Amino acid sequence: MGKKKKEPKPKPTITVAVDAMGGDFAPQEIIKGALEASRDFVINIALLGKQEVIIEELALHKKLVKDSFFYIIDAPEIIEFGESPGKAMKEKPDSSIARGINLLQCGEVSGFVSAGHTGAVVWGSVFGLGLEDSIDRPAIGTLFPTPTGHTLLVDAGANTDCRPPFLVQFAYLGARYAANIMRVANPRIGLLSNGEEPSKGNLLVREAHKLLKATDLNFVGNVEGKDLPRGVADVVVTDGFTGNVVLKASEGFAEMLTLSIQHALNGRRGLKKATSIVRPFLEGIIKRIDYSERGGAPLLGVRGNVIIAHGRSNAKAIKSAIYLAVKAVDHREALPDQDQEDLYEDVGEEETDDSTEYELEISTTE
């Protein structure tokens, strides 16, 4: 009986660029997660960073290297977290972030993932890739787990200061993402506020409520912070400052809950039998609230597939972030239509294209 012929290795059709130097655990966790993503999703990975550092790290993952598809692009400059986004992007064209956005702009890759300087990624995406028609500001979309799925929070940190029309644009961006990527039919849009009544909230929220109510979106009104994990809306809109505070607070709570559950599972000898019964259920809860399961957040509103990963991303989180990029490849459609463009124009807000002002807005999100 002859030896069974080995199946040929499938060839990838998608290439995702990964910032190997960005994040608290770079390059070790970033490279490991990227290789695992390449192996499991059958995609090509462009590793961006200091070539000698990447090669040295790859030598520690020989099995993964053998099973993966990747190539290295030397990017010797690094943008540190304390640097001004615009200044750094202009002065460091050979950084991993600048090179990654350039690859995306040129169409050499289908997506870009970075756990590095968020402000630099946003700035580079806006001025390198450009904004979609009728969109004045991009927005970061973050998924919150709910009992039956997820709620998308928009904006989670790209814009510290917003105008009412921006929140309307965020709502359209979030609705499209929910429909195309999350597969939610006619997604429910909520506006984050300190009360359900239309009269609640600051001036920004009250004005945005009026505008959202006049759109063709499935606007369900104001939602409170407690409603995010309840899933009362599929998309919840807010300004980037508030969204980032909500995101960081929820991460802290999730970590506390995870540690409490783990302590309860491991701390009592007399409950060993009971613990063995409930452990699978509690571990399932831990998995749902673990940010590394979602990995990253899409930067909505730019002309490119950009995923912003958590600065503390481990290999698992990077792999999940790359998966988000892969999912988005086939779902980049034009937004919005003419009626929606007219809505933005009718608001009467003064627009600005000044890059210096925009840099001030996004640089505070770090």
The average pLDDT value, as a whole number, equals: 84
Structural class: alpha/beta
What is the CATH T-level topology of the largest domain?
Answer: Isopropylmalate Dehydrogenase
Sheet with most strands: strand arrangement: 3-2-1-4-11-10-5-6-9-7-8
Report on the biggest sheet: 11 strands, mixed
Structure overview:
- An eleven-stranded mixed sheet has the order 3-2-1-4-11-10-5-6-9-7-8, sandwiched between helices.
- Helix 9 (240-266) packs antiparallel against helix 10.
- The chain contains 13 helices and eleven strands.
- It is globular and about 65 Å long.
- It is α/β, with parallel strands linked by helices.
- The protein folds into two domains: 11-130 and 302-333, Isopropylmalate Dehydrogenase, CATH 3.40.718; 132-298 and 336-366, Isopropylmalate Dehydrogenase.
- Helices cover 45% and strands 15% of the residues.
- The model is unreliable at 333-360 (pLDDT under 50).
- It has helices spanning 28-41, 51-58, 62-67, 85-91, 96-105, 118-129, 164-180, 203-213, 240-266, 272-289, 315-328, 338-347, 355-363, and strands spanning 15-19, 44-49, 69-74, 111-114, 139-145, 150-154, 188-192, 218-223, 235-237, 296-300, 306-309.
